[in-house]
Amino acid sequence: MTERLYYHDSFLREFDAQVLSCEPAGERWQVVLDRTAFYPTSGGQPFDTGTLGDARVLEVIDRQSDDTVLHITDRALASGPVHGRIDWERRFDHIQQHTGQHLLSAAFIDLFAMQTVSFHLGRDISTIDLAAPTVGSQHLEAAERRVNEIIFEDRPIGIRFGTAEELATAGIRKQVQRAGTLRAIEVESFDRQPCGGTHAARTGQVGLLLLRKSEKVKGNWRVEFVCGFRALRAARLDAALLGEAARLLTCGATEVPSMVERALDERQATHRARQRLTEELAELQALMLLATDRRAGKAGRPGVVCKVLGDQDPTYMRMIATKIVGQPDMRVLLATREGHVIFAQSNGLDADMNALLRECLAAFGGKGGGTRDFAQGTVGKESDVARLLDQALARLIG
């Protein structure tokens, strides 16, 4: 059993302890101390990092079978006294996020009777999942404002110990079934919640809470939030991005949404015009190929257009091929110099263009496939493109 110093003082940055054991675990070591200020991963909050003597603490694990905290280090430690140091920047970040989560969950209960069913403290973003039919902008705005009111009032946050029955009598937000002495966090006149994590001493230390977005996940509503220095970084980034968008659009920050909407409308109109012109160009090029490159097969056999098009986009080449085989009794063998190949035929013809394509590509180390009427593929060497089409043409016209 390890004495957990963070239970009583989340702001403890250094401590002295005794190394009780140090066992190898692959390239790492598992260290057990008689007492520790290092928080292990638990309840949605990640572990602390820092040092034990000269060893770096890489991970901290809660071994619940014997109530022991395992410190995973990068080197062995000798039995006896050791001095521990917590990575305070990481710890304080977790304090701000976890305390903010308590306030946010309490606000959703207080305002809308929405219960939190899970919490995750991520590297950049933290989330709570709410059991609610819907979470709209009005819910988010009200909860965010309520939390920040509590933060700005700088209310004290206390720690209470007791049995499940004692804490239930005190009015904790979430009932627990565990036996023995439990720990609860109390925000003055706002929230009581059983929790073993690290928290602020006063709500003002959370700094600020910003809600980022909400989405439905597996029947619940997931709300993303950031607190403290994370909120400051997020606000700075938002302002920088908005400022850059305003600069590029040559407008004021408040005009960015309308300018973006206008730009999107213009892009959509340009895209539609380009598509229409591309269709018309493909139609014209298909007619030119039918007029200049159409080859007749034996008596009664379909005509064939066989052509290397140059540096055409494969999508545009497919459009041309589709236009050509839209005519009755036509087959088409098209390729680009880069090695894109299309074999196609009009509906109702009896050739297997997929089989023909595969057979011809195999001779030149290419790959591809499709249907009996429309198949496409690629061949690696530019010098093989014309020879591949000649081979396919010979098979079709005999």
Label this structure with key terms.
alpha+beta, Threonyl-tRNA Synthetase, Chain A, domain 2, 6-stranded antiparallel beta barrel, elongated, Elongation Factor Tu (Ef-tu), domain 3
General description of the model:
This protein has 398 residues and is of the alpha+beta class. The chain is built from eight helices and 21 strands. The chain has helices at residues 88-112, 137-152, 164-170, 228-249, 256-292, 314-325, 353-363, 383-397; strands at residues 3-4, 14-25, 28-33, 35-36, 50-52, 55-63, 68-73, 80-86, 115-121, 126-131, 157-162, 182-187, 191-194, 209-217, 220-227, 294-295, 303-308, 330-335, 340-345, 367-370, 374-378. The protein has a six-stranded antiparallel barrel. A six-stranded mixed β-sheet has the order 16-17-18-19-21-20, with helices on both faces. Helix 7 crosses helix 8. The longest helix has 37 residues, at 256-292.
Brief overview, please?
The chain has 398 residues and is of the alpha+beta class. Helices cover 36% and strands 31% of the residues.
- Radius of gyration, in Å, reads 34 Å
Using DSSP, what is the number of strands? Answer: 21
Strand content: 25-35%
- Main structural class: alpha+beta
Largest sheet: 6 strands, antiparallel, barrel
Class of the largest domain, according to the CATH hierarchy? Alpha Beta
CATH fold label of the largest domain: Threonyl-tRNA Synthetase, Chain A, domain 2
Which H/E pattern describes the elements?
EEEEEEEEHEEHEHEEEEHHEEHEEHEEH
**Widest sheet, order of strands:** 2-3-7-6-5-8
Task: Name the CATH homologous superfamily of the largest domain.
Answer: Threonyl-trna Synthetase, Chain A, domain 2
SS element count, helices: 8
Any idea what the shape is? Answer: elongated
